Amino acid sequence: MKRKTFVVLTACLLCLTLLGGIAYASFSLGIYRNFADLSENETVDVDYRITSNDKNSGTTIFTVHGGGIAKGTSELAAALADRGGFNLYLFEGIKPADNLNLHITSTQFDEPAAINMIENSNTAVSFIGTKEETAMLTYVGGQNQLLARLIKLHLQAAGFNVQDAPYIPTNIAGTLSSNIVNKNKLLFDTYKLGGVQIAVSKGMRDALLKDDAYFQSYVTNINNALSSSWPLAVETLKPHPNNASPSSMARQNANENAAFNRSDTDIDKTIKEVLQYDFNSPKELIDKLKEETKK
Protein backbone atom coordinates (compact mmCIF):
# COMPACT_ATOMS: atom_id res chain seq x y z
CA MET A 1 0.00 0.00 0.00
CA LYS A 2 1.34 3.42 -0.88
CA ARG A 3 0.04 6.93 -0.82
CA LYS A 4 -0.93 8.29 -4.21
CA THR A 5 1.03 11.15 -5.73
CA PHE A 6 -1.12 13.78 -7.41
CA VAL A 7 0.35 15.66 -10.37
CA VAL A 8 -1.05 18.93 -11.67
CA LEU A 9 -1.75 18.58 -15.35
CA THR A 10 -0.67 21.32 -17.70
CA ALA A 11 -3.29 23.04 -19.79
CA CYS A 12 -1.97 21.32 -22.90
CA LEU A 13 -2.17 17.84 -21.42
CA LEU A 14 -5.66 18.50 -20.12
CA CYS A 15 -6.80 19.51 -23.57
CA LEU A 16 -5.37 16.30 -25.02
CA THR A 17 -7.14 14.29 -22.32
CA LEU A 18 -10.44 15.97 -23.06
CA LEU A 19 -10.05 15.25 -26.74
CA GLY A 20 -9.16 11.67 -25.87
CA GLY A 21 -12.55 11.36 -24.20
CA ILE A 22 -13.98 10.70 -27.63
CA ALA A 23 -12.37 7.25 -27.56
CA TYR A 24 -14.17 6.02 -24.48
CA ALA A 25 -17.37 8.02 -24.74
CA SER A 26 -20.62 6.25 -24.12
CA PHE A 27 -23.22 6.10 -26.85
CA SER A 28 -24.52 9.31 -28.39
CA LEU A 29 -27.87 10.67 -27.34
CA GLY A 30 -30.98 8.95 -28.65
CA ILE A 31 -33.93 10.87 -29.98
CA TYR A 32 -35.90 11.01 -26.72
CA ARG A 33 -35.42 13.44 -23.83
CA ASN A 34 -36.98 11.23 -21.16
CA PHE A 35 -39.14 8.15 -20.66
CA ALA A 36 -42.46 9.97 -21.16
CA ASP A 37 -41.25 11.17 -24.54
CA LEU A 38 -40.10 7.67 -25.47
CA SER A 39 -43.25 5.89 -24.31
CA GLU A 40 -45.44 8.18 -26.42
CA ASN A 41 -43.63 7.10 -29.57
CA GLU A 42 -42.52 3.50 -28.91
CA THR A 43 -44.50 0.41 -27.92
CA VAL A 44 -43.72 -1.58 -24.79
CA ASP A 45 -42.91 -5.26 -25.44
CA VAL A 46 -42.57 -4.48 -29.14
CA ASP A 47 -39.87 -1.80 -29.24
CA TYR A 48 -38.67 -1.95 -25.65
CA ARG A 49 -39.05 -4.16 -22.60
CA ILE A 50 -38.95 -3.40 -18.89
CA THR A 51 -38.01 -6.00 -16.28
CA SER A 52 -38.48 -5.06 -12.62
CA ASN A 53 -37.79 -7.77 -10.05
CA ASP A 54 -37.88 -6.54 -6.45
CA LYS A 55 -36.42 -9.23 -4.17
CA ASN A 56 -36.64 -7.05 -1.04
CA SER A 57 -32.88 -6.66 -1.17
CA GLY A 58 -31.10 -3.51 -0.06
CA THR A 59 -29.13 -3.61 -3.32
CA THR A 60 -30.40 -2.96 -6.85
CA ILE A 61 -28.49 -3.94 -9.99
CA PHE A 62 -29.72 -2.37 -13.20
CA THR A 63 -29.14 -1.14 -16.70
CA VAL A 64 -31.11 1.48 -18.58
CA HIS A 65 -29.20 0.62 -21.79
CA GLY A 66 -30.00 -3.06 -22.08
CA GLY A 67 -30.88 -5.32 -24.97
CA GLY A 68 -29.88 -3.90 -28.33
CA ILE A 69 -28.88 -0.52 -26.90
CA ALA A 70 -25.63 -1.81 -25.37
CA LYS A 71 -25.45 -5.56 -25.84
CA GLY A 72 -24.17 -7.40 -22.80
CA THR A 73 -25.32 -4.95 -20.13
CA SER A 74 -28.59 -6.84 -19.56
CA GLU A 75 -26.78 -10.15 -19.27
CA LEU A 76 -24.30 -8.73 -16.76
CA ALA A 77 -26.96 -7.06 -14.63
CA ALA A 78 -29.21 -10.12 -14.61
CA ALA A 79 -26.39 -12.51 -13.74
CA LEU A 80 -25.09 -10.30 -10.93
CA ALA A 81 -28.55 -9.82 -9.45
CA ASP A 82 -29.16 -13.57 -9.57
CA ARG A 83 -25.77 -14.36 -8.04
CA GLY A 84 -26.21 -11.98 -5.10
CA GLY A 85 -29.97 -12.20 -4.62
CA PHE A 86 -30.25 -8.50 -5.49
CA ASN A 87 -33.12 -6.50 -6.98
CA LEU A 88 -33.00 -6.27 -10.78
CA TYR A 89 -34.17 -3.60 -13.20
CA LEU A 90 -33.67 -3.75 -16.97
CA PHE A 91 -34.69 -1.32 -19.68
CA GLU A 92 -33.99 -3.09 -22.98
CA GLY A 93 -34.23 -2.16 -26.60
CA ILE A 94 -35.82 -5.03 -28.54
CA LYS A 95 -36.36 -3.43 -31.95
CA PRO A 96 -35.11 -5.31 -35.03
CA ALA A 97 -32.83 -2.32 -35.71
CA ASP A 98 -32.06 1.23 -34.56
CA ASN A 99 -32.13 0.40 -30.86
CA LEU A 100 -29.75 3.27 -30.18
CA ASN A 101 -32.71 5.56 -30.80
CA LEU A 102 -33.99 4.29 -27.43
CA HIS A 103 -30.87 5.49 -25.61
CA ILE A 104 -31.77 7.88 -22.79
CA THR A 105 -28.80 9.13 -20.80
CA SER A 106 -28.51 7.99 -17.19
CA THR A 107 -28.98 11.60 -16.07
CA GLN A 108 -32.32 11.84 -17.88
CA PHE A 109 -33.72 8.34 -17.43
CA ASP A 110 -36.84 8.66 -15.29
CA GLU A 111 -39.00 5.58 -15.87
CA PRO A 112 -41.15 5.41 -12.67
CA ALA A 113 -40.47 1.76 -11.72
CA ALA A 114 -36.72 2.32 -11.99
CA ILE A 115 -36.80 5.50 -9.92
CA ASN A 116 -38.94 3.84 -7.24
CA MET A 117 -36.71 0.77 -6.95
CA ILE A 118 -33.48 2.73 -6.73
CA GLU A 119 -34.80 5.36 -4.32
CA ASN A 120 -35.72 2.51 -1.97
CA SER A 121 -32.33 0.79 -2.23
CA ASN A 122 -29.35 1.24 0.06
CA THR A 123 -26.92 0.37 -2.73
CA ALA A 124 -27.26 0.84 -6.49
CA VAL A 125 -24.98 -0.46 -9.25
CA SER A 126 -25.57 0.18 -12.94
CA PHE A 127 -24.02 -1.18 -16.12
CA ILE A 128 -23.53 0.94 -19.24
CA GLY A 129 -21.55 0.39 -22.42
CA THR A 130 -18.70 2.27 -24.06
CA LYS A 131 -17.78 2.22 -27.73
CA GLU A 132 -14.28 0.74 -27.84
CA GLU A 133 -14.52 -2.11 -30.33
CA THR A 134 -11.45 -4.10 -29.31
CA ALA A 135 -10.29 -2.74 -25.96
CA MET A 136 -10.92 -5.06 -23.01
CA LEU A 137 -11.74 -2.35 -20.48
CA THR A 138 -13.99 -1.71 -17.51
CA TYR A 139 -14.38 1.75 -16.02
CA VAL A 140 -15.79 2.17 -12.51
CA GLY A 141 -17.39 5.46 -11.53
CA GLY A 142 -20.34 6.92 -9.67
CA GLN A 143 -20.49 8.98 -6.50
CA ASN A 144 -19.75 6.03 -4.21
CA GLN A 145 -16.01 5.99 -4.81
CA LEU A 146 -15.35 3.65 -1.89
CA LEU A 147 -17.52 0.86 -3.30
CA ALA A 148 -16.19 1.62 -6.79
CA ARG A 149 -12.65 1.08 -5.51
CA LEU A 150 -13.60 -2.22 -3.88
CA ILE A 151 -15.17 -3.45 -7.13
CA LYS A 152 -12.06 -2.35 -9.01
CA LEU A 153 -9.77 -4.21 -6.60
CA HIS A 154 -11.79 -7.42 -6.75
CA LEU A 155 -11.80 -7.38 -10.57
CA GLN A 156 -8.12 -6.52 -10.81
CA ALA A 157 -7.22 -9.34 -8.44
CA ALA A 158 -8.84 -11.70 -10.96
CA GLY A 159 -6.81 -10.24 -13.82
CA PHE A 160 -9.37 -7.89 -15.40
CA ASN A 161 -8.29 -4.53 -16.82
CA VAL A 162 -10.15 -1.96 -14.73
CA GLN A 163 -9.69 1.81 -14.63
CA ASP A 164 -11.29 4.63 -12.70
CA ALA A 165 -13.86 6.38 -14.84
CA PRO A 166 -12.28 9.66 -15.93
CA TYR A 167 -13.54 12.49 -13.74
CA ILE A 168 -13.50 15.01 -16.54
CA PRO A 169 -16.46 16.16 -18.65
CA THR A 170 -17.37 12.80 -20.17
CA ASN A 171 -20.57 10.84 -19.94
CA ILE A 172 -19.16 7.77 -18.20
CA ALA A 173 -17.96 9.26 -14.89
CA GLY A 174 -21.39 8.81 -13.29
CA THR A 175 -20.77 11.45 -10.64
CA LEU A 176 -23.70 13.79 -11.24
CA SER A 177 -26.50 13.69 -8.67
CA SER A 178 -28.96 13.64 -11.58
CA ASN A 179 -27.60 10.23 -12.64
CA ILE A 180 -30.17 7.62 -11.68
CA VAL A 181 -27.50 5.43 -10.05
CA ASN A 182 -26.93 8.13 -7.42
CA LYS A 183 -30.57 8.36 -6.35
CA ASN A 184 -30.34 5.56 -3.79
CA LYS A 185 -30.97 5.96 -0.05
CA LEU A 186 -28.67 7.86 2.27
CA LEU A 187 -26.16 5.73 4.17
CA PHE A 188 -27.35 5.41 7.80
CA ASP A 189 -30.22 7.74 6.75
CA THR A 190 -27.73 10.59 6.95
CA TYR A 191 -24.79 10.34 4.55
CA LYS A 192 -25.01 10.84 0.80
CA LEU A 193 -22.74 8.30 -0.93
CA GLY A 194 -24.60 7.56 -4.16
CA GLY A 195 -24.07 4.50 -6.32
CA VAL A 196 -21.56 2.90 -8.70
CA GLN A 197 -21.67 3.02 -12.49
CA ILE A 198 -19.74 0.27 -14.30
CA ALA A 199 -18.94 1.14 -17.90
CA VAL A 200 -17.87 -1.85 -20.00
CA SER A 201 -16.26 -1.50 -23.42
CA LYS A 202 -17.82 -3.21 -26.43
CA GLY A 203 -14.72 -5.39 -26.81
CA MET A 204 -15.00 -6.49 -23.21
CA ARG A 205 -18.73 -7.18 -23.44
CA ASP A 206 -18.25 -9.23 -26.59
CA ALA A 207 -15.50 -11.27 -24.92
CA LEU A 208 -17.59 -11.89 -21.82
CA LEU A 209 -20.54 -13.10 -23.87
CA LYS A 210 -18.36 -15.50 -25.85
CA ASP A 211 -16.66 -17.15 -22.85
CA ASP A 212 -18.92 -18.35 -20.03
CA ALA A 213 -16.07 -19.04 -17.60
CA TYR A 214 -14.71 -15.52 -18.20
CA PHE A 215 -18.21 -14.09 -17.77
CA GLN A 216 -18.82 -15.99 -14.53
CA SER A 217 -15.47 -14.89 -13.09
CA TYR A 218 -16.31 -11.26 -13.87
CA VAL A 219 -19.73 -11.47 -12.23
CA THR A 220 -18.43 -13.44 -9.24
CA ASN A 221 -15.79 -10.86 -8.43
CA ILE A 222 -18.23 -7.96 -8.56
CA ASN A 223 -20.57 -9.96 -6.36
CA ASN A 224 -17.73 -10.59 -3.89
CA ALA A 225 -17.23 -6.84 -3.62
CA LEU A 226 -20.95 -6.28 -2.99
CA SER A 227 -21.67 -9.27 -0.78
CA SER A 228 -18.44 -9.53 1.24
CA SER A 229 -16.26 -6.42 1.16
CA TRP A 230 -18.95 -3.73 1.05
CA PRO A 231 -20.85 -4.99 4.15
CA LEU A 232 -17.52 -4.94 6.04
CA ALA A 233 -16.89 -1.38 4.90
CA VAL A 234 -20.37 -0.27 5.92
CA GLU A 235 -20.03 -1.89 9.35
CA THR A 236 -16.66 -0.22 9.80
CA LEU A 237 -18.11 3.19 8.92
CA LYS A 238 -21.19 2.74 11.08
CA PRO A 239 -21.32 5.27 13.94
CA HIS A 240 -21.10 3.69 17.39
CA PRO A 241 -22.46 6.21 19.92
CA ASN A 242 -21.18 4.30 22.94
CA ASN A 243 -17.62 4.64 21.66
CA ALA A 244 -17.93 8.17 20.36
CA SER A 245 -16.07 11.11 21.80
CA PRO A 246 -18.02 13.80 23.70
CA SER A 247 -17.70 16.19 20.78
CA SER A 248 -19.01 13.66 18.27
CA MET A 249 -21.84 12.71 20.66
CA ALA A 250 -22.83 16.36 20.94
CA ARG A 251 -22.76 16.70 17.17
CA GLN A 252 -24.85 13.56 16.76
CA ASN A 253 -27.46 14.81 19.24
CA ALA A 254 -27.57 18.23 17.62
CA ASN A 255 -28.13 16.71 14.20
CA GLU A 256 -30.35 13.79 15.16
CA ASN A 257 -33.18 14.82 12.86
CA ALA A 258 -31.15 16.51 10.14
CA ALA A 259 -28.65 15.39 7.53
CA PHE A 260 -25.04 16.45 7.93
CA ASN A 261 -23.40 18.56 5.28
CA ARG A 262 -21.74 15.80 3.28
CA SER A 263 -18.42 17.61 2.89
CA ASP A 264 -18.11 18.05 6.66
CA THR A 265 -18.98 14.57 7.89
CA ASP A 266 -16.53 12.33 9.67
CA ILE A 267 -17.43 9.52 7.26
CA ASP A 268 -16.66 11.67 4.25
CA LYS A 269 -13.32 12.72 5.68
CA THR A 270 -12.45 9.10 6.46
CA ILE A 271 -13.31 7.93 2.95
CA LYS A 272 -11.33 10.74 1.33
CA GLU A 273 -8.32 9.91 3.47
CA VAL A 274 -8.50 6.19 2.65
CA LEU A 275 -8.88 6.80 -1.09
CA GLN A 276 -5.63 8.75 -1.20
CA TYR A 277 -3.79 5.42 -1.03
CA ASP A 278 -3.18 2.67 -3.55
CA PHE A 279 -4.09 -0.86 -2.45
CA ASN A 280 -3.15 -4.28 -3.73
CA SER A 281 -6.24 -6.04 -2.42
CA PRO A 282 -9.70 -5.36 -0.98
CA LYS A 283 -8.43 -6.52 2.42
CA GLU A 284 -5.77 -3.81 2.44
CA LEU A 285 -8.44 -1.19 1.82
CA ILE A 286 -10.71 -2.52 4.57
CA ASP A 287 -7.79 -2.66 7.01
CA LYS A 288 -6.91 0.96 6.22
CA LEU A 289 -10.54 1.95 6.65
CA LYS A 290 -10.58 0.35 10.09
CA GLU A 291 -7.38 2.15 10.99
CA GLU A 292 -8.78 5.52 9.97
CA THR A 293 -12.08 5.08 11.83
CA LYS A 294 -10.19 4.52 15.08
CA LYS A 295 -8.53 7.94 14.92
UniProtKB/TrEMBL annotation:
Which branch of life, at top level? Answer: Bacteria
Q: Which InterPro entries match?
A: Gamma_PGA_hydro (IPR008585), Gamma_PGA_hydro_sf (IPR038128)
Name recorded for this polypeptide? Uncharacterized protein
Tell me what organism the protein belongs to: Oxobacter pfennigii
